[in-house]
Design brief:
CATH class of the largest domain: Alpha Beta
Number of strands: 13
Order of helices and strands: EHEHHEHEHHEHEEHHEHEHEHHEEEH
CATH architecture of the largest domain: Alpha-Beta Barrel
Structural class: alpha/beta
Largest sheet: 7 strands, parallel
Helix content: 25-40%
Radius of gyration: 22 Å
Number of helices: 14
């Protein structure tokens, strides 16, 4: 079960470079002081459920590069959490940082103050793309950082981006191959957006950069998350957290407030298409899935059903939820019985769309 996260945003703190794509102040305009963190935690805890079956609670220091700020400032922020850790109200801490700011001294400090999870802004494992994005580190820095974190017993997450200058589908899948070799505990994947105030805005305005279309983004992500799930490496999130601040700063790019659900719906469309190509049922088809995945199968505004009817000449399609159907499974009712397909089967078949 995923932890309940109380996010504390520290935009640009500890950043050694100004990355081409970045304007963190679009989502968090000002970093809170260490002294305000304690009040934020206390206020947030009152909104969370308590009891024996409660989920793990984590304070997360996001934004910037936490281990690249001074050791004194790291301690100031981490110290504000200690009373909540000792009382059991908070279970652990997570931080985000850059891969070249995780030496042995930094890891020792994180362990001492109860940090469990470290999320690394890897973005890509292609040095050319890192250079064009002004990241200031190389792919090997990520490999080294993950290895050290795992040796120290930290939970490790990697942040990846698609559609950066110089990126390509082949580069993305090469990145995923290297990520799978490192075996992180989870990944997050964000498409590149052109944000007002980010250095990338100038390239976009000059016609020197074109972001991915939403359709291209879905195609890359569809294949990518299936490859990661087959590893298996969980995909914790796809796309940035929607906020009014973010949406007000987006100038161009494949933004969608429910991008993960959009990709999942496309996967279910491919699953249904694969079944219908083999077991075409006319004039109507009946599918079964887990109740929590009915919306993924139907697609946004029932778009999957409309496309399936048109593609296969069906008069009607019904989707029913059944508790005994495992998640990531789709079943088609046929004259001779039920046939099923798993999400991972689409990766092996290459997909239908």
């Amino acid at each position: 079960m995923n932890p309940l996260i109380l996010p504390v945003f520290l935009p640009h703190l500890g950043c050694r470079e100004r990355c081409l794509f970045c304007n963190q102040k679009a989502t968090a305009p000002e970093a809170p002081s260490p002294s305000s963190v304690r009040e934020f935690i206390a206020t947030s805890l009152r909104e969370f459920p308590s009891g024996k079956n409660r989920r793990e609670k984590q304070i997360a220091f996001y934004g910037g590069s936490f281990t690249a700020i001074t050791g004194e400032d790291q301690i100031r922020y981490l110290s504000e959490v200690q009373s909540f850790l000792s009382s059991g109200l908070i279970d652990s801490i997570r931080i985000s940082t850059r891969p070249d700011a995780l030496d042995e001294g930094a890891l020792s400090l994180l362990k001492e103050y109860g940090v469990k999870t470290v999320e690394i802004g890897a973005q890509t494992m292609i040095d050319e793309v890192l250079s064009l994005s002004y990241r200031g580190h190389w792919a090997e820095d990520t490999v080294s950082a993950v290895r050290r974190l795992q040796q120290w017993g930290f939970e490790v997450g990697l942040h990846l981006m698609i559609g950066l200058p110089g990126d390509s589908p082949d580069y993305f899948f090469e990145t995923l191959d290297r990520v799978i070799e490192m075996k992180p505990d989870f990944v997050r994947i964000h498409p590149t957006l052109v944000l007002r105030g980010a250095p990338l805005e100038r390239l976009w305005q000059a016609g020197e950069y074109s972001p991915l279309s939403l359709e291209e983004t879905v195609q890359w992500l569809k294949k990518g998350i299936l490859r990661l799930e087959g590893a298996p490496i969980p995909v914790a999130r796809i796309g940035l957290q929607p906020t009014k601040g973010l949406e007000n700063h987006i100038l161009a790019g494949p933004y969608h407030p429910a991008l993960h659900q959009l990709v999942d719906s496309r996967i279910f469309f491919d699953m249904a298409s694969t079944l219908l190509e083999i077991y075409r049922m006319e004039p109507e088809s009946v599918f079964y899935c887990h109740p929590a995945e009915i919306s993924n199968m139907r697609g946004q505004r029932n778009g999957n059903l409309a496309k399936l009817r048109a593609r296969f000449g069906l008069k009607g399609i019904s989707v029913e939820g059944r508790d005994n159907v495992r998640k990531n499974t789709l079943i088609l009712q046929t004259e001779s019985g039920e046939v099923s397909i798993q999400r991972i089967d689409i990766l092996n078949s290459g997909g239908s769309a």
